[in-house]
# Entry
Amino acid sequence: MTATLFFVQALNGLQFGLILFLIAAGLTLVFGVMDFINLAHGVQYMVGAYLVAAFSAWTGSFGWALLLALPTALAFGLLLEALVFRHLYDRDHLDQVLATFGVILFLNQGVKFVWGAAPLSVPVPELLSGSVEIANGLLYPVYRLAIIAAGLVIAALLYVLVNHTRVGMLVRAGASNAAMVSALGVNIQRLFMVVFGFGAMLAGFAGAMVAPILSVEPGMGDNILILAFVVIVIGGIGSIRGAFLAALMIGLVDTVGRSFAPNLLRLVLDPAAASQTGRAIAPMLIYIFMAAVLFFRPSGLFPVKR
Amino acid sequence: MNATIKTLGLAAAMTLATAPAMAQEKLKVGLLLTLSGPSAVLGQHARDGFQLAMKDLGGKLGGRDVEVIVVDDELKPDVAVTKVKGLIERDKVDFVVGPIFSNVAVATHKPIVDSKTFYISVNAGPSNLAGKSCNPYFFATSYQNDQNHEVLGKVAQDRGYKKVYLLAPNYQAGKDALAGFKRHYKGEIVEESYTPLNTLDFQSELAKIASMQPDAIFTFMPGGMGVNLVKQYRAAGLADRIPFLSAFTVDESTLPAQQDAALGMFGGSNWAPNLDTPQNKKFVQDYVAAYNAVPASYAMHAYDAALLIDAALKATSGKTDNKDALRAAIQKAEFKSLRGDFKLGANGFPIQDFYLVKAAKRSDGKMQTEIVEKVFDDYTDAYAKECAPTN
# Structure
């Protein structure tokens, strides 16, 4: 049973990691390419979830809702860029933090104004609503497998896009030395806008994918934003590959650690103390992990060469 | 954020236009509720419940015109204390009604009772305010926090569940909840699991539950956490195999988001919308008509708080200056509570019945909790005996 349980927990970790990756990918690009700290990235995740909730209530179909939500999330990201963020690129980090924090407050209140404070629910699409029995009595929802599949597909697409296309080349170049890219005649402003809109759409996509399994509520992006920052710091700022691996590691460390830390401690402590300590240590694991990574690799696992 | 609601509304003006003019000035009631943040919906239920009561009472309490001042505590104790000082010193309110959360109640307790203002809780019932730190100016129309959890502990014990899995968020109320459950449950606890506050994904917990195969689980997951847990519990196929006992997890504030996923899940409460008393039927019907939502217990407590103040003021002919007389009137207030049997104990907390409730669908498609069985009759909280009358 323990092996099966471990397998299921690893699947959970993988799924959580992939969601984190979708959010962190945009964040790391915006931070790496534009040197812009966007605390409001988490609310774009929330906006994606709200959009899919609204569209699925309207169309009655999750598929259509997702199709409509993605371009809307993109448009919304671009709108925010044009209205707020564009004016902050030349300011220092503190100004950016303050302004984007303001955007968080504004949008959290905004969704409450439009949709109310009560959590919304999005039905799981009919096609993916079943579950597969992994072992006796251990069911795994098909929808979560679908999230894993979607996350892997997006990761593969991003890999091709960043490493094998012209835009990707410019993005990588921008992450290394934005001033030089600009000097070579690339419209860096437009590149920034593309990266920003794309990042917002990925975060929106993550929000849309989790909407059926989590509740859609104001402030849902705030906690995940912190984890996304942990991911990009571990992975190396500006590195998509780093974000991918770090996200999977964080997902696995968090889920598996939470589940097995008490069991492991039981080997050296008595059961009551083990469960007490395990409970205390489990939530800290990812931060301990981050501290360890930063101790040995201060600029993350895959730092962008400058 | 101060929304001042002049309840000297049309209704009152029309029905009482011919009544002799009262010389008394308006009675002031401050509503201190959480109206922003993810838990705002709880405060909204309480606010709406109180205002529905004001409407039913013709805009008057104990024959006096009323000014209701609503403030948002933002679920921050320091903010709440500042707002409370405003209510007491600037607005000079006669009553503070609220709050939802116990940490707010504990922080605001001293400034309110020290100013000899009556404080009537519509939800929060922390153990110290019911026990050692009870105060003659503090009353609750709700319950002591542990009591709803005790209901489920008693049910688990009575049904002979041998192994129970406990799950709660890792903060004070979560620990209190599990302690409350254990007061009457004597069987084996296979795991006492605490998740970080505001965890939204419970998949790894669910895998553990499935592998441990307990006879039941007990959980306390208020707000969005409960919405997610219930949906994921159903999706993991556990809902039909392992009974789901909970408190503040499946109620009318979360059911609109949980929908069918919650059907058949159990909770503990002192009331349910389908409780069969004539005044409760009317209350639920009016509430649904006015706010397009089924009221949760927060709304019921706030409605009863208005009835309590009304009854007490009627006994003192609307006078509030003699605090001892008013207190005695509150303590003995006779009114028809929406929950049926109700009286206030010596510590200011209700002595009332508790029920096992279950999520079900109404004929109009809305979700509500419905009573399964009465678990405690005229039940006094465990801390009442620690409340010394000299306080």
